[in-house]
Specification:
293 residues; alpha+beta; Glutathione S-transferase Yfyf (Class Pi), Chain A, domain 2; 10 helices; 4 strands; binds glutathione
Length: 293
């Protein structure tokens, strides 16, 4: 082990300095709003307040899959919440998600506009509302919900644990990187074994469990997260790779990945989505070219 220093915790922890690393400026030990600001509301039944991160993308993939399957009630406006700018701490956002994290959804098609926060809860709400992408037989439903909740419970070790210490922390320490790499590799193996005999996570049909798991674990295989594919030997998980590539080819998945995205090639960034035609006309490359001319 090569950690240079050790730390003796004080009797009572105090917030004295930023924790360091990327995103340090948005980390606070208190909840609640930092400023007053209402959220915008568009014309569609679903109002999504989000960002094109893996947690945000789960929901835009499902909305695009629902629209592609003909559920017009899934039409949505997607508003960008810039978490680096602290938009998640506005009074309006906190009214929709008291936990100050994207994604958050307002469903205006209900008798009273209803908030849903936590990506897993949003996926379940939409799947039940439209009767799609969630098995209806009790055994299939139980399996699907088990994998959906597996993702919500497991991924903080991948993101907040491994990703933080391997990619975002300003200094690299062997102890946390080893600990979380071990757990993430175990999770990759869980998925690989499951996908050895199953085309999709819950069996023969593509469900919200795939949509929850793919944005995180598919991103590791495709080296779109933390630049860690080689370090984790992601290519060795052959069944996971087969599933990852199959889902990556779906058009609604490709559209969902563009929504509220603020990084990467400009043609892949659709900062706000208010209409299906926005994918053709409002990507950042087109908006910036129009501004210049
Ligand atoms: N368990 C939550 C996690 C959501 C989450 O961690 N969102 C991140 C972006 S991926 C966020 O909004 N971070 C802002 C912050 O921590 O202030 C979910 O699945 O919805």
């Amino acid at each position: 082990m090569n950690d240079a220093t050790t730390y003796t915790p004080p009797k009572v922890w105090k917030w004295e300095m930023e924790s360091g690393g990327r995103f340090a400026s948005i980390n606070r030990p208190i909840a609640g709003p930092t400023h007053d600001k209402e959220l915008p509301v568009g014309k569609h039944p679903m109002q999504l307040y989000s960002l094109g991160t893996p947690n945000g993308v789960k929901v835009t993939i499902l909305l695009e899959e629902l629209l592609a399957a003909g559920f017009s009630g899934a039409e949505y406006d997607a508003w960008m919440i810039s978490i680096r700018e602290g938009d998640q701490f506005s009074s309006g956002f906190i009214d929709v998600n008291p936990n100050s994290k994207i994604p958050a959804l307002m469903d205006h098609s209900m008798e009273k506009p209803t908030r849903i926060f936590e990506s897993g809860a949003i996926l379940l709400h939409l799947a039940e509302k439209f009767g799609a992408f969630l098995p209806t037989d009790p055994a299939g439903r139980a399996e699907c919900l088990s994998w959906l909740f597996w993702q919500i419970g497991s991924t903080p070790y991948l993101g907040g644990g491994f990703g933080h210490f391997y990619a975002y922390a300003t200094e690299k320490y062997e102890y946390p990187i080893n600990r979380f790499a071990m757990e993430v590799k175990r999770q990759l193996d869980v998925l690989d074994r499951r996908l050895a005999d199953n085309r999709y996570i819950c069996g023969d049909t593509y469900t919200i469990a795939d949509m929850a798991i793919w944005p995180w674990y598919g991103a590791i295989v495709l080296n779109r997260a933390y630049d860690a594919a080689e370090f984790l030997d992601a290519a060795s998980y052959k069944n996971l790779a087969r599933w990852t590539h199959e889902i990556d080819k779906r058009v609604p998945v490709q559209r969902g990945r563009m929504v509220n995205k603020s990084m990467g090639p400009l043609e892949g960034q659709l900062h706000e989505r208010h209409d299906a035609s926005d994918f053709d006309t409002k990507t950042q490359d087109k908006l910036e070219a129009a501004q210049k001319s």
